Amino acid sequence: xxxxxxxxxxxxxxxxxxxxxxxxxxxxxxxxxxxxxxxxxxxxxxxxxxxxxxxxxxxxxxxxxxxxxxxxxxxxxxxxxxxxxxxxxxxxxxxxxxxxxxxxxxxxxxxxxxxxxxxxxxxxxxxxxxxxxxxxxxxxxxxxxxxxxxxxxxxxxxxxxxxxxxxxxxxxxxxxxxxxxxxxxxxxxxxxxxxxxxxxxxxxxxxxxxxxxxxxxxxxxxxxxxxx
Length: 228
Prior knowledge:
Lambda Exonuclease, Chain A, 7-stranded mixed beta sheet, alpha/beta, 42% helix
């Protein structure tokens, strides 16, 4: 029996990665997932290389742990689907040809997400990892208490606990994402130097120009109202 109420159909599932895009910047999320635009920079390229390394090689079993790469997951309760870099299934089975349904017998399920850089001040990465866990819980009927982020800069795993506040943030972010897609409206830009200057879409987004445009529109509207 799968967990979660089926709020969405297969056709309504949105990319799991969009949750991270939304928390990093709603406008970036809209540009990517509504307007279908994309651009690379050194940060996105480094991230792609790290993900490719995580996905390389076959699944394997060793010391009672089944390591599965590029595992497709989805949640009809959250309305998302995506792919896990690595999922570790801890248990007694050692058969590499095990069916996915057989993995429900795992004693512990641990998703591992690979990212360039280092742990961040915001929770976008944690939300993406927790969303993967919630998808796995719904698909396997298990409880997953924690997972790991592996950051390329410090070259070690960071433990992430899937507590109630983080799970709530996942649900709220998924709801906000679906609301944006349904509205078909890309959020306005809010320039923030540290975030925007590192974004590969900065030339397309033009956050400084958008800020100036909104300022002029606000001044013009105020001026008109003062004359009425």
